[in-house]
Amino acid sequence: MAKYRFYYILFAVVSTVLMFSYKSKLTSVLFLIAIAIPAISFVLLVFSRLLVKIRIEYRSLTAEKFENTDISVTVTNRFIIPLSPAELIGCFPYRNSEKFEYHKLMISVPPFSSVTVNFNSPIRFRGVYKSGIEKLVIYDLFKLFRMNKTMKCYEDFIVLPRKLVIDPIIDTGDGDSETLSQNNFSLDKNAFASIREYRAEDSIKNVHWTMSAKHDKLMVKQMERSIGGSCVIIPDLNEYFPFDEDNYEAADSIIEVMLALNLSLISMKQRCLNAWYSPADKQCEQFSVKNEEDNMLLFDIISRLPRQTDTFLPETIARSCMEASADISAVYFVTSQLRRDFIGKMTDIELFRNKRVKILLVSGAIETDEQAELADAVAVTQGFELWKIDKDNIVQSLNAAIELHKKQ
């Protein structure tokens, strides 16, 4: 734009000098053109701004991680002058950015036409993002002026964690010999209350083949009651890694494991007390899940949970659950890093006493020497189990841990 202004100023100066030097009709016409160009161009620009229309459409304001966002922006030029170029400015996922970012996109719209720009890039990380168009910048024909068509039309776009389905978890109680004996008795695979028709989400392991043959359709065993009672699930969402992307990926994996645990446990009629630290409210939050409706509410709450940038020790979260600890038989602690100070005092945490504590370490395939040492320390501690979960293959590794847990 500065280049075109320089050319115009040069033309205006030359035409003015020529007019006063030669005083001919040609120089007078050149001088009048130099005066008329900016005036006419500015008036046309005003009409272009008034007659341009911008529309943004969302297929949905929510999308699961790695799912296409499907956002379209349509710019309609209802004037005789082309918008070439025009600058579209806003927050949207452009190409392979994998997140919503502030972008400036150059477009060209012919007269009496529309141009649609689609943003279909999948988003890599869970969270609430600002999405929308801030303004459209348009230029006159000679690139001397520009005007803004301000929109500031922003929406909250929610990127949801993945919904993972794992095998049912049969909890073996709180370690008391009498309780364990009763629970082991109830682990009989033929113990069920009723028979119902097979659903898509049911495991093929629960099919009752005799009844299926009798009814000429698949029937499954409906479990009668909880095997392990109530439990507590504590996600450790602290940031332990030097790079933001690693912290985002770790937090998302922990949340997906947490939600999968809830879905698995309530399928066995267990009640799950979820406790976490809320960065927005700067306090511990709790939510009890007893059925699928509760689980959907938890899913909605956790999907909007901001990133935890300040450190909040999970031991403090555990203390906040003490009021509900009377009927709790198991604790699931989900983390991306084992802390030496935590491992050293985990047997002194009151919530963990006389409970079966499962520490779920959600990490990658590469393990440091320190993490391997701490994992061994957890494995040999009475009353504690270590479940190693591969963040790149959560379902398979979690199912393997559940199967191993059943055999213990």
From TrEMBL:
The keyword Transmembrane applies. Keywords: Membrane, Transmembrane, Transmembrane helix. It comes from the Bacteria. The chain crosses the membrane at residues 6-22, 29-52. Residues 195-272 form the DUF58 domain. PANTHER family: DUF58 DOMAIN-CONTAINING PROTEIN, SLR1927 PROTEIN-RELATED. This is Uncharacterized conserved protein (Some members contain a von Willebrand factor type A (VWA) domain). It comes from [Eubacterium] siraeum 70/3.
